[in-house]
From TrEMBL:
It holds the Pfam family Cu_bind_like. Residues 1-21 form the signal peptide. This is Early nodulin-like protein 1. Gene3D superfamilies: Cupredoxins - blue copper proteins. It comes from Quillaja saponaria (Soap bark tree).
Length: 175
């Protein structure tokens, strides 16, 4: 009975990883958090950090700060370091922002003077790897380009799905 429960837990964990495992949370500014850069030479500190990471839909950025705020603004407002109507605003000291679309996101501090001193950042969220296709397009493509057997279609199965299948197979053997 115990092996059956372990098996079910493994299956549930695997399915959770399939659907939730690809998104990440990024800690903005590392251990220092969302703070005004110490020198004028660091005015691009957060943009440099953002350019070293790859963001996708579903990822989140976590801002930790004291006596400050985080605003998501338009490109024009970003360039002016000022916004009277931000797209997003938070000043709770522990802000998590989730990316729900691809494109550019402009972040600034809402505290006067902080943005001008480098507390600003642009993040590019990448387009999905494969654009969704309609069922008609998908079946037409498969019919015209993949006339072989099941082995031809095996390439499209994700590695996570294969792991789940293998775990299921071994779970059935050892039950």
């Amino acid at each position: 009975m115990a092996s059956y429960q372990i098996f079910l837990c493994l299956i549930l964990f695997s399915f959770t990883q399939i659907f939730l495992g690809t998104c990440l949370e990024f800690q903005v500014g590392g251990d220092s958090g969302w703070v005004v850069p110490k020198s004028k030479n660091d005015d691009q500190l957060y943009n440099q950090w953002a350019s070293k990471n790859r963001f996708i839909i579903g990822d989140t950025v976590h801002f930790k700060y004291k006596k400050d705020s985080v605003l998501v603004v338009t490109q024009e407002e970003y360039e002016k370091c000022k916004s009277s109507h931000p797209l997003f605003f938070s000043n709770n000291g522990d802000t998590v922002f989730k990316f729900e679309r691809p494109g550019l996101f402009y972040f600034i501090s809402g505290v006067t003077g902080h943005c001008e001193r480098g507390l600003q950042m642009i993040i590019k969220v990448l387009e999905p790897a494969l654009p969704p296709q309609s069922e008609t397009e998908n079946s037409t493509t498969l019919d015209s380009t993949h006339k072989g057997g099941a082995a031809d279609h095996m390439i499209s199965i994700s590695s996570t799905a294969i792991v789940v299948l293998v775990m299921t197979f071994f779970g059935m053997i050892f039950m």
